[in-house]
Amino acid sequence: MSAIVLDGTQIAAQIKSEVGEEVKELTAAGLRPGLAVVLVGHNPASEIYVRNKVKSCEQLGIYSEKHTPPDNVTTEELLALVADLNRRDEIDGILVQLPLPPQVDAKKVLLAVSPEKDVDGFHPMNVGYLSTQRPGLVPCTPAGIVEILKRSGIAIAGAEAVVVGRSDIVGKPVAMLLLNGNATVTVCHSKTRDLAAVCRRADILIAAIGKAGMITPDFVKPGATVIDVGMNTVTDPAEFKQFFAGNEKRERDFAAKGSTLMGDVHPKVLQVAGAITPVPGGVGPLTIAMLMSNTVKAAKLRRGNAVGVLAGR
Ligand code: NDP
Prior knowledge:
Elements: E1 4-5, H1 8-28, E2 34-38, H2 44-60, E3 63-67, H3 75-87, E4 93-96, H4 106-112, H5 124-131, H6 140-151, E5 160-164, H7 171-180, E6 184-188, H8 195-199, E7 204-207, E8 225-228, E9 232-234, H9 237-244, H10 248-257, E10 260-262, E11 275-276, H11 283-303
Helix pairs in contact: 1-11, 2-11, 3-4, 6-7, 6-11
The chain binds NADPH dihydro-nicotinamide-adenine-dinucleotide phosphate (NDP).
């Protein structure tokens, strides 16, 4: 048996096309959604993420602007920039790309983003809205995971869901979303006893750990849905071989780049799971699609009533 591979790239394209239609409607009503991205310094990975976010805005017709303060920016300077973006009516979403340099008080900066414009969904106000099931902005990766499940016809209500990882960015919010969707949810972490046995209870297993190939077949109930959130860069040839020996496409990729991107789930899980998200091409593409969707949602929640566009649709 081999699991159905859930195509995140295709689902993300579908969501983006729906969001693009909404952007057209909103723009015609004089309410073009706008996203401001703040990118401090020159972190190469952050630069790629931000470039992709800005490119997606352009594709969908969302107004975007990029602010690039230098590496030695102070907390006060960033707070002033965020305050200005909070004030501007045409800016619906503010995204402060992490990580911030060590001299900056990152928590203070994130807390300063108006909850109405917090398209990352990290502000404590939005965390509270999520846990009390009020309309608000939900973190992009967890929201994307739920979209994959829903659009692939995988029932959440009544399912046993096990989430491995309890970060504020992925583990906790995805657990809350699944609970809100009436799953029976267990959240695991590095202190969980007999992790494999707990994971084997899952109809839906979410791996958000950051450890290459840690979830092996003995963690997975036959037929379960496995969502692999991990993004790990493997550079050690011995480690690569252990996971991908005989996989020609991966071998070509590794020979060309000296590295390969893999998730937290071991490739052999494909033979046990019922459905699985690949890495790359699974959860990753959904994160940007949901950022676009959150920007439109933020525009509607904050400004929609002014032009009679239904908020929160
Ligand atoms: P964190 O490092 O913040 O959290 C990792 C979690 O995994 C922690 O709760 C930790 O437990 C748990 N953990 C670590 N080791 C073990 C272990 N041996 N057994 C059980 N649990 C363990 O990571 P993030 O949540 O930010 O990210 C997780 C992964 O998802 C990363 O690979 C990241 O790159 C990826 N990611 C992918 C995104 C995408 O768009 N596809 C977006 C965001 C993240 P404890 O709390 O006890 O330390």
